[in-house]
Design goal:
The chain has 166 residues and is an all-alpha fold. It has a domain at 35-148. The chain has helices at residues 2-18, 26-29, 34-62, 67-72, 75-95, 99-116, 126-148. The radius of gyration is 20 Å and the shape is globular.
Length: 166
């Protein structure tokens, strides 16, 4: 699976490097901030969807809740995302600082997943709830802010919008 993924990445780079109007211009990816932001965004996005799938399965199969209840029990994750993204967005607008929030979010995300790694069907429900809140807050503090750290393409790139007809 890893080899297949690497082959697909190589093929994408090869196609994008030869395209007249690439979807992802490779010069953007070479920037010092952009590549880590892309990797971070992919990691956090994968973590968010992985947590949603894991938790619904955990509550349904391990705890014996109905599928509807299992979905509802993941509300702390969504509440954490909503709360953290709103508050941190406001704080970034006020202070202009992004890095401390991204680092704090990454730490919260890591702590939340570390706690998720310890839960089983005998643990009190408060433990997964706190872990879900940590994961949600970590996602809320990092995901959209990783987009903010990427600088604009510069004056040589075309403005956003539909491509012009030539």
């Amino acid at each position: 699976m890893v080899a297949g993924g690497l082959v697909l990445i190589g093929a994408a780079v090869w196609v994008e490097s030869r395209a007249a109007e690439p979807v992802v211009p490779l010069h953007i990816v070479r920037r010092r901030t952009t590549a880590p932001a892309i990797v971070g965004g992919l990691s956090v996005g994968t973590a968010m969807f992985g947590a949603a799938v894991f938790l619904s399965q955990y509550f349904h199969l391990s705890r014996g809740h109905s599928p509807t209840d299992a979905g509802l029990l993941t509300i702390p994750t969504m509440a954490g995302i909503l709360l953290a993204s709103t508050v941190v967005g406001w704080l970034i607008s006020r202070t202009g600082k992004i890095k401390p929030f991204i680092i704090t979010g990454a730490v919260l995300l890591t702590v939340g997943f570390a706690v998720h790694g310890t839960i089983d069907s005998r643990k009190p429900m408060l433990l997964p709830g706190v872990a879900m809140l940590c994961v949600g807050m970590g996602v809320g503090m990092t995901l959209q802010n990783l987009v903010l750290v990427v600088p604009p393409c510069g004056s040589s790139s075309s403005p956003p919008g539909p491509p012009s007809s030539r």
